Amino acid sequence: MTPIDTLQPEDIIPLSVPEIRGNEWEYIKECLDTNWVSSAGKYVTRFEESFIQQAATKYAVACVNGTASLHLALLAAGVEPDSEVLVSTLTFIAPANAVRYVGAHPVFVDADINSWQMDPSLVVDFLENHCWQNQAGELINPDSGRRVSAILPVHILGHAVDLDPIIASATRFGLPVIEDASESLGGLYKGRPLGGIGTLGCFSFNGNKMITTGGGGMLVTSNSELASNARYLSTQAKDDPIEYIHHEIGYNYRLTNIQAAIGCAQLENLSQYVQRKRQIAARYDEAFASIKDITSMAEADWTHHARWLSVISLNEDSSIDRHQLATSLSNANIQTRPLWQPMHLSPAHQNSPKLGGQIAESLQRRALCLPCSVGLREEEQERVIQVVHSVFSAS
Ligand SMILES: *Cc1c(COP(=O)(O)O)cnc(C)c1O
Fold this sequence. Notes:
Elements: H1 24-34, H2 42-55, E1 59-63, H3 66-76, E2 84-88, H4 94-101, E3 105-109, H5 120-130, E4 132-133, E5 139-140, E6 148-152, H6 163-172, E7 178-180, E8 188-189, E9 192-193, E10 200-204, E11 217-221, H7 224-234, E12 238-240, E13 245-246, H8 257-267, H9 270-288, E14 294-296, E15 303-304, E16 310-314, H10 322-331, E17 354-355, H11 358-366, E18 367-370, H12 378-394
Parallel strand pairs: 2-3, 2-6, 3-17, 7-10
Antiparallel strand pairs: 1-11, 4-5, 8-9, 8-15, 10-11, 12-13, 14-16, 16-18
The structure holds pyridoxal-5'-phosphate.
C-alpha cells in the first residue's frame, strides 16, 4: 500500500475557482436597482475605461466573451478569407477557431522549450526566409499560395511571448499583431502590460481566468479606426440607431452592464490576485525543488509572470508519468488538469500548416496544472504538496 492510499477522503481542492470578495454585490445591486441591466450603462463604460488604464492603450471595447473579442480583432485587422494567420500551437482552441470564423487558415507555430510560448525564431524565419513578397507587397506562403495576413501570439498561462522579434518582423511586412492575453491579464512584457503591446489585444473573463465576469471579454487597441470598427461590428453594425440602417453584417457581441459591474469589482483586486498566484507558484517551486523528476514552469527574464495556473512538468525520464500523478491526486480529491492538445494535432484543425510542433507535444505530455485558486488555503496547498511527495517517494 502506498502512503496516499491511507489518506482520509477530504474536501475537494479545486483547480482554480473565482474569488468574489470585493464590491461585486454592491455594483450588481446598483444595476438591478436602477434597471441598467443590459448592454449599455455606466459599468460598461467604467470597465472599458479601467481597461484602458490597465492595458495602457487608448481604446477598449467590452465583449460578450474572449472568443468574440478575438473574432472582432481579426475582422477589424482586415484578416480576409483564404489568408493565413500565424497562431501558437500550444493554446486553448479559441484563437484558432476565431481564425476560421473569418474564413482564414491558421499556421500553427511551435512553442519555445524554455518559455513554453510561441517561438519567435520560427515566426521570423518563416516570414523572412520562407515566404516571398508579390508586387503588391503581400507576403505569400509558397507552400499554400496564400497570403499571410496577421500574427496571433497567445500569452499562455500568465507568461509573456517574447514579442519584440515578432513585432519587428511583422512591422517590416505591414502585418498586424493580435495578442491573445486571455490567460495573462496582469502579466508584463519588459515592464509593459500584456495585451497592450501589439496592434490589438484580447482578454477573457471566463470563470477560471485571472478575473471573471461570469463570461466576458475585452478588445484593446491604440488605433482609433480599429477600435471604432470593432465597436461598430459588436453592435450589429448599426449606422442609424433610430431608423435601424445597417451597411454591413454585424454581430451582437456587447457585454452587459451587470457583467461589467462584476468586472469593475474584480479588476480592483487584480494586483492582489497576481500577487497571491505568484506566491502559490513559488511555494510549489520551493516544495518540489527536491524532486528531481519535477521541473517548474520558468519565468523568462522578459516577463513578469501572472501565474494564472501553477504548472509543473515531469522530466522525460520520470518514473511517474503525468497520468499516474493526476490519478493519485484525484484519488486524494485534488483536481488537476493537463495542458491542451496542441492545435496541430487537433482533429478540429487537421491539415492546417504548421511550423514544428514537437516541443508543444512534449510539454503537453509532461505538464500538469495544480490547484491555484486565489483563495487556496495554506493547509490545502500543503495537502497537495504532501500527496505529490508521497507519490514520488513511493516510486
Ligand atoms: C479562455 C481563453 C480564450 C477565450 O475564452 P472565452 O471563454 O471565449 O472567454 C481565448 N484564448 C485563450 C488562450 C483562452 O485561454
